[in-house]
Design brief:
The complex is a heterodimer of chains A (118) and B (117). Chain A is 0% helix and 53% strand. By secondary structure, chain A is mostly beta strands. The radius of gyration of chain A is 14 Å and the shape is elongated. In chain B, strands 2, 5, 6, 10, 11 and 12 form a 6-stranded mixed beta sheet that branches. Chain B has a 4-stranded antiparallel beta sheet with strand order 3-9-8-7, with no helix packed on it. The chains are: A mainly beta (118), B mainly beta (117).
Chain lengths: 118, 117
């Protein structure tokens, strides 16, 4: 498996523009997580899904942020409009189950998308 | 609520010396504890976990962690540090609620480990 795939790897945009980040989880994983990492705030969980259903979006900063998971192999995180304070590295991660069906809490992280909002 | 604390932002150690990165936890129920490592410009990578059983857990790259229930600690250790171990280390604990929230991990703020030659 190629692991968790994120695109783009780098995004530079201007304030006010819409930004869409994409994630393809590992096949068979039923959990998907979106994180944001900055020097100031560290690693923050934004939202996570189980079986494509959002479980907790309390980490989403404000209404400018939205996330979707239309199917088991794809998720998007959208920022509209973007602001300079959104500049960060955004990680997607996924986790699945062990052979017996119990949870495997080992999360597999993608390489991240480095977002710069000017 | 579940939480972990990493009391040190930075740990510096000479190559060849033993290293310890500290983590304490607060959980309701049985603790499921994890260590992750992040190298520069990369995502986090799983190192090891404690679910149950032996208090000393062995993981990748020669790392191990000791679970101490009385001190609510889960410190990461390595007998002999390498320069290549320099990275950001995160401790994490699983959510203790039932159902779908069990998939969530709560991460600490991270500890930057620097091993100098």
């Amino acid at each position: 498996d190629a692991g968790v795939i994120q695109s783009p790897r780098h995004e530079v945009t201007e304030m006010g523009q819409e930004v869409t980040l994409r994630c393809k989880p590992i096949s068979g994983h039923d959990y998907l997580f979106w994180y944001r990492q900055t020097m100031m705030r560290g690693l923050e969980l934004l939202i996570y899904f189980n079986n494509n259903v959002p479980i907790d979006d309390s980490g989403m900063p404000e209404d400018r942020f939205s996330a979707k998971m239309p199917n088991a192999s794809f998720s998007t995180l959208k920022i509209q409009p973007s602001e300079p304070r959104d500049s960060a590295v955004y990680f997607c991660a996924s986790s699945g189950r062990l052979a017996g069906g119990s949870l495997n809490n080992e999360q597999f992280f993608g390489p991240g998308t480095r977002l710069t909002v000017l | 609520a579940q939480s972990v604390a990493q009391p040190e932002d930075q740990v510096n150690v000479a190559e060849g010396n033993p290293l310890t990165v500290k983590c304490t936890y607060s959980v309701s129920g049985n603790p499921y504890l994890f260590w992750y490592v992040q190298y520069p410009n990369r995502g986090l990578q799983f190192l090891l976990k404690y679910i149950t059983g032996d208090n000393l857990v062995k993981g990748s790259y020669g790392f191990e962690a000791e679970f101490n229930k009385s001190q609510t600690s889960f410190h990461l250790k390595k007998p002999s540090a390498l320069v290549s171990d320099s990275a950001l280390y995160f401790c994490a604990v699983r959510d203790g609620d039932r159902g779908s929230t069990l998939g969530r991990l709560y991460f600490g703020r991270g500890t930057q480990l620097t091993v100098w030659p």
